[in-house]
Amino acid sequence: MNVLILVDVQNGFIHNAENQVMVQKLGKLVQEGFFDRTIATKYVNTAGCNIIRLMGWTKLLSEEEQTIPDLIREHVDYIDEKTGYSAYTESLCQYLLRENAGKYPEQVFLAGLDLGCCVLETATDFFEAGVRPFVLTSYCSCAGGPEYFDAAILCLKHLIGNHHLITDQCITSKSRLEFIAENAKQSCPC
Q1: Summary mean pLDDT of the chain
Q2: Residue 63: how many CA atoms within 13 Å on its side-chain side?
């Protein structure tokens, strides 16, 4: 089963031209139907949570900011709400098990609006759970700009391995996606 997890593609994170372009690109990707399941995560900031308490970050408190754009939402099979960085939540895991005959998928594909934060955390959590995380780097952006994007790539190479980063600028078909994933598995140094 090929699962795409779109991490936090929400109105409150679409605050610059790069993210506006990325949402359009992600919209085209999900419209193509290359994945068996498409999941979107919805970050919900709440009063008293660690991100407010420890960082003072008070965005994504309103429903409007938390909303997933229609362009994405209409092609999503499941939306999982989360209150922390990682999309690897109990509710998402339960969904994956239900949809895959009681087993975790062998691999997941990740994309989203903050590679250096929530996408990175999600990738490492899936990796540690034994699910191969493929990060579609051309379908990710970073709120901090190119410097943070490059730092996230460097960290991901170290944490999950370079062969799990798919850098193709455009996924053109389901067979191309599967070919890329299979080649990445075979290039694993283990």
Answers
A1: 93
A2: 0
CA 81 – CA 76 distance, rounded (Å): 13
Distance CA 40, CA 178 (A): 21
- What is the β-pairing status of strands 37-43 and 132-140? unpaired
Cα–Cα distance, 159 to 116 (Å, whole number):
13
Query: In degrees rounded to 5, what are phi and psi of residue 119?
Result: -70, -45
pLDDT digits (tens, 9 = 90+) for 80-100: 999 999 999 999 999 999 999
Q: Which letter, b or e, does each residue of 88-117 get, where b requires 16 or more Cβ atoms within 10 Å of its Cβ?
A: bbeebeebbeebeeeebbebbbbbbbbbbb
Using alpha carbons, list the distances in angstroms from residue 165 to 70, 92, 95, 132, 187: 28, 22, 25, 11, 12
Which runs of E-coded beta strand occur in the chain? Answer: 3-7, 37-43, 78-82, 107-112, 132-140, 165-166
Q: How far is CA 31 from the centre of its chain?
A: 16
